[in-house]
Amino acid sequence: xxxxxxxxxxxxxxxxxxxxxxxxxxxxxxxxxxxxxxxxxxxxxxxxxxxxxxxxxxxxxxxxxxxxxxxxxxxxxxxxxxxxxxxxxxxxxxxxxxxxxxxxxxxxxxxxxxxxxxxxxxxxxxxxxxxxxxxxxxxxxxxxxxxxxxxxxxxxxxxxxxxxxxxxxxxxxxxxxxxxxxxxxxxxxxxxxxxxxxxxxxxxxxxxxxxxxxxxxxxxxxxxxxxxxxxxxxxxxxxxxxxxxxxxxxxxxxxxxxxxxxxxxxxxxxxxxxxxxxxxxxxxxxxxxxxxxxxxxxxxxxxxxxxxxxxxxxxxxxxxxxxxxxxxxxxxxxxxxxxxxxxxxxxxxxxxxxxxxxxxxxxxxxxxxxxxxxxxxxxxxxxxxxxxxxxxxxxxxxxxxxxxxxxxxxxxxxxxxxxxxxxxxxxxxxxxxxxxxxxx
Length: 440
What we know:
16 helices, 3 domains, Double Stranded RNA Binding Domain, alpha+beta, 47% helix, 3-stranded antiparallel β-sheet, hpI Integrase, Chain A, 440 residues
């Protein structure tokens, strides 16, 4: 049957014992197929470039209206005229959809991203662990299904439980990096984070440094802790001597453990904890008073040289004299059996607790170093170079510590004494009073 397909015609079409086909007279190839079950299906019939007849299903009525189905048929006719086999195109799109549905975040992480991250990122294992912790509920979702509404909901829940905006931004940035690789490696076509702005947060960040009294207490506590360990060794030797046991060597060296020299070096160089852990004796040039932070161990990935002041030079020299591991390739602050040190949390917590210093992390020694520089009048760009930051934005948090910087700034806009001021009267106070009385 050939006729112009209208809504009234489609609505009134009744099923028969076999499929009934109604071909449209306005768009060649556009047709309605009425199944014996009563189902009404839109289709488009055409010939491919090899001359073979093909038919593709456009949808069902009434879910797809007459006008919508006709428009799809016109689009398909355009594809055919350009030499496209629309049925093959549809099968390819379906196969791509099936592939995308199977490509979950978990599969992408385990098959591609994890191996790349552990090879190319210095903290790859940590980053992967954090992503697992923060986004495990999304791991079995297809990557293509991640969208801004999921992300907005996740951010809302994190804010409600008290997470800081800066923490939420940092956690999302890890997932952002994963999905950027998925786009780069052609796993997905579009980044799900497109158009999403980070939450507003305090860019100045935390700047905690020691006051003069706190620094004194910290230094005294470092010495006191070592004195306690020396006294404990002496008491232990006395106990062994009374019983005729062989005694241990007395603690006569300057430093009893690595914690005191490490803290003093951090205060005088601004090195990060990881940079201290990775420091080798070959990185030091004590005669020239320089140390080098290798790019492979630096957070920025860039090698930098830091001058060593007199206190730091004395600490390094004394520490090297008393340690048995002085080979150039040895760690300056080694862990057990000369291996890399990985944690000083317990020792540091004991020190700050003994010094009665609250809310002060080991990393804050780096802020203390920077703060002392700025307070001494060192310009921010020099501070940036010493700290190893890529741009000056990270050190702007210390700008308010510069001596008299704000006072100097506002004085520049102060009114000049010779401007906007009425001329002084040349009449004496006595004459002015007399004039007032006369007027009265």
